[in-house]
Predict the 3D structure of the following.
Amino acid sequence: GKADYDEVTYMLSPEGKAMAPPKQKTSAVPFAAFAAGILLTIVTFPTAQPYVAGYFGGAGAGAPAAAGGDAGAMVASYREKMLSRPLNNIIECKPGEECRMGSAMRSRVLGQKGVTLWMTGLSGSGKTTISEALEKQLLLRFGKNVYRIDGDNLRTGLTRDLGFSAADRGESVRRAAEVAALFNEAGVITMVTLISPYRKDRDAARAMHQRRGLPFLEVFMDVPLDVVKARDPKGLYKKVAQGLIKNFTGVDAPYEPPLSPELTLKNSEMPVPACVDKLVAALSSLGSLTGPPASHGLHPPDGGDSVSLIVPHEQLPARLAEAARLPRVPLTDTDTNWLQVIGEGWAAPLRGFMREGTLVQALHFNSMLVDVVNGSSSYATKPTEWMQSDFPKQRVSMPIPIVLPITDFTRRCIGKSAAVALTNAAGTPLAILRDPEVYELRVREIIARTFGITDDAHPYIAQLLAPGKTYAIGGEVELLGRIKYNDGLDKYRLTVDELRAAFAKKGADVVYAFQTRNPTHAGHAFLMKDSRRKLVEKGYKNPVLWLSPLGGWTKKSDVPLDVRVKQHIEVMAAGELHPDWTVMAIWPSPMIYAGPTEVQFHAKSRRVAGASYFTVGRDPAGMPFSSGPNEGDDLYHPDHGRYVLMSSPGVGQMRFLGFEKVYYDKKDHTMRTPDRSRKDDFISISGSKMRKLAALGAKPCPDLIPSDLVASKCIPPGFMVQKGWEIVSDYYMRQKTGDWVPYSKQLGGLPMGAGMQSSAEQPFGKPGFKAYHASGGAFVSPWHGLALYPTAASNLVVNFVCEIPRGSTAKLEVQKAVPFNPIMQDTKKGALRYYTYGAPFFNYGM
C-alpha cells in the first residue's frame, strides 16, 4: 500500500489483435489514493487514451470515475442483484432428509456447542487482544475448539476483492457472517473481530444466525475515541492525523455502536483477564462450554441426560400390583438413601444399583463408561459381559461404589426372576429392580480401593463388613412414587428436576453449591457471600447459592439433620444468606467418609443438579481413625481432598472455589480471613470449642471479648445468628435426651390391623413406637385381655397376635413388662434391631 504500482497496458488493434505496449511507462499512481482498489483500464488505439472500465474497491479520495457512473457502485449493484436472486436449482437436503449430523449429537460428541461471538468496536478497542486471550483460555484451559475470524485473515483471501466503501464493508460483514455460521454449525466457538461499523450489517449477521437457529452474541468493545487514539497499536490514527488515510472509521467515517449487545466490555476500565472472565461467564451461562443441552446457566448432568426414575402417576397402580407379586429384597436405611439418590437422578447417568461391570469401572477408574450416541445410560444398563472387547469411548465421573448388598437367602429367593421388589423396613415396596444381576460382593476389595485405609471400626466400613451379606444385586430401578420420610423435612427435599426449576425461577445465570455437615456460623456465611462476590467479579449477573445440607445416613457424632436444617432456615431468615439468591435443599446422599474419593462424588452430584461451582474447604468428607494404632488421627491429609477434587478428571466444566480458615474479628464482630496487620484482633473458634460453648448454653459476650470464652460461658456477638445459635445450643444441651432426626430415615408405614393404635409423635421407625390393641375406646392387652379362642364353642380357630407383618424386617414383639402389652421394636445399645437375612415371607407372632 505504500509503494506505487506499475500499470501494465495491453494494446489492442481495431481488429482485436494484441500489439506491443508502448515503450514509455505510464504515469505511476499512488496505490493508497485508490483505497486499496484494483484499477482496470482499457486503452483505445491509436489515441492511447485510458478509459476506466471498472474499479473494484473502495471509494477512496483518489478513486477514478467510470464512464456512465461509479464503477464500485456498479459492482455493488450487480452483487446485490446476484445475492437476491432465487436459488431454484440448489437444494441442500431433500424434504424430510437429514443431510448432516444433527447439532445435538454433534455437540454431545464434541463436548461443546457452536456459538458466534461478534466482537465490534473501533480500531484499537481491544478486539484482537481480548479475543487472543479468550482463545488461549478456551483452547488451553478448557480444551475447546475455538477459531478467530478477523479482518486480516479475511483480507488476505475471502474479501481480498473488497475495498472500504459502505457497500464493500457490508459485503465483508456478510461474508464473515456466512463463514462464522458454518463454523458455528460445525460446533466451533467462533469469534469474529471486525470493526463492522454499520448497525444494519451487524443486525443482518444476527438475523442470518437466527434463521439457522445458531447462537449469536454481539460483544461491544466500548472504548472512547481518545483512548483508542492513544493506544494506536498499528499506527493508523497517526496516519489519519497526517492525512495519509481518509474515510477512517470513527474519525471521518461513521461508527454506529450497538443498541443492545449481549455483552459490553469497557476494557479501558478493566484488565484483559477480567474481560475474558466475563466472556467465559457468558459462554458458560449460554451452555456453550458443554455438549449436552443446558439453560439458565445450569451445568448439564454427567452424560448429558437427566435421570428421573419415578413411575408416572397413571402407571403407578399397575406397578404396585406387579410389585406385590415379586420376590422382595429388603433395604436398610442407607440402602433407601442410595435408592433415592439413584431414582431422582443424583448419580446420573446411573439408573440403578451398579452391575458388576460398572462397579469394577468405579473401583479402578473412579468413572463409568457412557454411550453418548445411543443414550448416556444405555451401556451401563446392559448385563456385564466379561469377554467383550468393544467399549464406548467416553467416561463420566463415578468415584464411589453404589451397590445393594444381599444375603445368600435373598439370592436364592430371587432365583431367575426377571424383576424384584425393593422394600423398606415396614415391608412397603419402594421400587422395582429390573433384569437383576447377582454377583459376589468382594467387600475387602471395595474397601481397599474406595477408602485406601485399614480401619474395620470405621462407621461405613463396619456396615459393609456386617456378616451375612456376601452378594450384591445390580439392575435398573423404577421408583414407586416419591420417597417420603415423614419426618417434617420432606418439603425441603427437592428432586433434581425440582431443584433445577427452583434455580431457573430465581433467574440464575450460574449456581454454586456449599455443603456442610455442621450448623452455619458467620464464617460459613462469609465464605458463601464471598464466593458470590467472586462470581459477580467474573461477570455473572445473578449467582444463586445452593445451601445443601447432607440428608442421608451419617455417623452418630454428627449434628442431626433436623437441627442443621432448622438452623439454616434461621440464618436465611436473618438475611445472612439472602433468600433472593439462596436455595436451601437437602442433598439425599449418605456419607461414607472416604475423603478425597468421596468428595468427587459430592461435586458430581452437585453438577447433576446444575451447580457449576463448588465451594470446598479443608479435609472434605474426612474423619479420624476409629481403631488401630492410628486411632484419633486424621484418615486423610486435610489438604488432599480439595487438591484431588480440583485436579480430578471427569469434573466437566465445574470450577471450584477454595477457601482458607476464617477467624473471628473482635474489632468488627464478624468472621473473615485474618488481617495480618492486626493479628491480635483475630481469634480462632474451633468446632470443639463451639460444641463446648453450645453445651454450656453460652450467651452473647459483652463488647469486650474475654480471652477464655469457655470459662466465661459466652459466645462472641456476630459468630452465629442468635436464633440459630439457640437451636444449636438446645441440641447440645439435650443431645442424649432429645428426640432428633439424625438423618433421612423413613417413619411410619407399618401395616396395622383394625383396632390397632399408635402415637403420631412416635411413629414406626422411632424407639418410642408403641402399637396398642384397642376396643371400645380403651386399650386391651393382647396378652391378657384376648381369649385364646374367639368362640368358646370351638377350638379349631385361635386368635393370632401378629407381631411382625409379612415383609417387615423390624424385630417387633409384644412387651410383657409394659402396661397393656403394646407391640414395640427391640433395641440393642439404643439402636433399633432389624432382621438382616431377608424379607420374612410369613406373619410372625403368638
